[in-house]
Amino acid sequence: IQISDNWPGYSLDLFTYPQHYYGDLEYVLIPHGIIVDRTERLAKDIMQDIGDNDIVVLCVLKGGYKFCADLVEHIKNLSRNSERFISMKVDFVRLKSYHNDQSMQDMQIMGGDDLSKLTGKDIVGTGRTMKVLLNNIEKYKPKMIKVASLLVKRTSQPDGYRPDYYGFEIPDLFVVGYALDYNEHFRDLNHICVINDHGKTKYRV
Ligand code: IMP
Ligand code: MG
């Protein structure tokens, strides 16, 4: 799903969201329900592509945890309601590369022991994070690696990385919610929203 640069979004007044974020957000870019519905379809596409292979889901924390949990849930439900039972293992790595809304050069990877077939990620911004992670996973020579990311940003970055599956292509905006953070805030917001200047200043470090 492409969200165009001139998409005005939805007014925050049309939805509910935590009171402690009143005044910090510009608008709702993607409501929670649409995120979940789109994720269900990604799960179906993934199921179709992996055939009879078992999968190891590698969730990229922290921002990917909501997407990963919902994706796994949908894969489980689809698998239960079909003839094919897919065995799934889940593992986690933690990456950190952002300071305020700026991508940092150095990146830390923490955790993860069983790196294999599938990764669940929150957002591909510049694509830098994903490339570093893939370089690390490829050392383990998995049979297949597929990357699923909820969002892909249209950045001007020339080395733009494209995941195998993604939910939405969005404008080059800093977004929060559905586990995506701004300095650890806004993860507890259900919808994906655009933060305003007041919010940026309030939570700047
Ligand atoms: P990249 O290296 O620029 O692709 O950044 C990827 C990582 O940065 C993601 O996994 C996110 O955790 C974080 N990130 C990038 N863009 C955003 C955003 O708009 N909001 C919140 N986090 C973001
Ligand atoms: Mg972050």
CATH architecture of one domain: 3-Layer(aba) Sandwich
Question: Overall mean pLDDT score?
Answer: 89
List low-pLDDT spans: none
What structural category do the secondary elements indicate? alpha/beta
Structural overview:
This protein has four helices and nine strands, in the order E-H-E-H-E-E-E-H-E-E-E-E-H. The protein is an alpha/beta fold and 205 residues long. It has a domain at 34-169: Rossmann fold (3-Layer(aba) Sandwich). The strands form two sheets. A six-stranded mixed sheet has the order 4-3-2-5-6-7, with helices on both faces. A three-stranded antiparallel sheet has the order 1-9-8. The protein starts with 24 loop residues before the first strand and ends with a helix. The structure holds inosinic acid and magnesium ion. Magnesium ion binds next to loops. It is an enzyme of class 2 (transferase). Belongs to the purine/pyrimidine phosphoribosyltransferase family. Pfam families: Pribosyltran. It is found in: Cytoplasm.
